[in-house]
Amino acid sequence: MPAHHHAVSPVVGRLAPSPTGLLHLGNAWAFLLAWLSARSRGGRILLRMEDLDPQRSRPAFADAILEDLAWLGLDWDAGPDTASAGCAECAGGPFVQGLRGPVYAAALARLEAAGLTYPCFCSRKELRQLASAPHLGEEEAAPADPCRDLDAAARQSLLAAGRHASLRLRCPAEAIAFDDEVMGPQRFAPGDFGGDFALRRSDGVVAYQLAVAVDDGLMGVTEVVRGRDLLPSTPRQLLVMRSLGLRPPRYAHIPLLLDAGGERLAKRHASLSLAALRARGVEPARITGYLAGLAGINPGGAPAHPRELVGRFSLNTLPRNDMRVMEEDVARLVGSN
Ligand code: GLU
User: Fold this and answer.
1) pLDDT in tens, 69-104
2) How far is the CA of 157 from the centre of ligand 1 (A)?
3) What is the set of domains in the chain, with CATH numbers?
4) SS3 string of 264-292?
5) How far away, in angstroms, is 230 Cα from ligand 1 center?
6) Bridge-partner residues for 14, per DSSP?
7) Model's pTM, two decimal places?
8) CA distance 127 to 55
9) 212: Cβ below 6 Å to ligand 1?
10) 50 CB under 6 A from ligand 1?
């Protein structure tokens, strides 16, 4: 990211964990890079707890995540634990999605009033079938959601009959283009990300795409650094922000950490949770030094506190491909030298 952005506006980055499990090495990788990216340009960090999914979120995980991040040496200027505004540039708390219901309701009401949404009565199964239109080499348009064009009377009678509906955003037909700081120029036609998408589930739970777009926009986030698995979410979030007149951040989608078998590191890799590594006596600076080594800013991967890495940060040395964490890497990490 070019340094001249610094003078233009204050940099605000964010860490956006979901409290659905313990942080693992893959989360630490993404959060370290997001933190370094903002801090290396004198930027602010906000920490936003993404506890929207009532089935999977646990307060105990939220607490553990804050502890693990602090242990790792990452700090934040605004977050769930900062009284109100720890950061003038980070507008619009609270920084816990579960406490932001009224904010999302207001955004949804604006989108509805603008005619940009429609209720969808399809079951999950029907939506899956719509989404998996055959791709047989020929340009075959995915079948449109039949609920998109229901007339008002049909809609009213389904709603009056008590049918549950999700609320979907009507996507324009044009492609969405943006420049990713790592992945380069991107272009997504609506069919590439599944077309119209849910802003609110039929059980009333606000969808990730709506919440993240509204939050990044309203909280003044200027850059999003996250795993490249979220790249196809970006055109959807840009559409939401555009529809609400919110200013989009810059995006940097980074390669993923994989296990030796090529699977993305995830919560099920319990032995690579930060809590497990800490319990084995691994110093946090070893972890951040190792991860900085993978990022190409700490050759040899010697122990380094995040603060010591700030001056060395660059996205230019970042590998473009996903990286495997092998058994011997883990052994070196937990080993005594
Ligand atoms: N909370 C999301 C997750 O843990 C990340 C959201 C984002 O970075 O946009 O997967």
Assistant:
1) 999 999 999 999 876 556 777 777 899 999 999 999
2) 37
3) 9-98+255-335 (3.40.50.620), 101-211 (3.90.800.10)
4) ECCCCCHHHEHHHHHHCCCCHHHHHHHHH
5) 8
6) 46
7) 0.91
8) 21
9) yes
10) yes
Residue 112 CB coordination number (10 Å): 14
For ligand 1, mutation pick of 23, 96, 212, 223 (most atoms within 8 Å of CB): 212
Tell me if 16 CB under 6 Å of ligand 1.
yes
Residue 325 has which token pair? 């964490």
Euclidean distance between CA atoms 200 and 206, whole angstroms = 4
Q: Which residue has the higher pLDDT, 149 or 48?
A: 48
Q: How far is CA 78 from the centre of its chain?
A: 17
Q: Give the pair of three-digit tokens for residue 193.
A: 């990300």
What proportion of the chain, given as a percentage, has pLDDT over 90? 77
**Is 97 buried (19+), middle (13-18) or exposed (0-12) by CB count in 10 A?**
buried
Q: Which residue has the tokens 């979220």?
A: 230
Torsion sign over Cα 236, 237, 240, 241: negative
Q: Which atom of ligand 1 is nearest to the CA of 30?
A: 8
Nearest CA to ligand 1 atom 5: 16
CA distance 12 to 20: 25
Place of tokens 């972890």: 287
- Ramachandran assignment for 204, one of left (phi > 0), alpha (psi -120 to 50 degrees), beta (any other): left
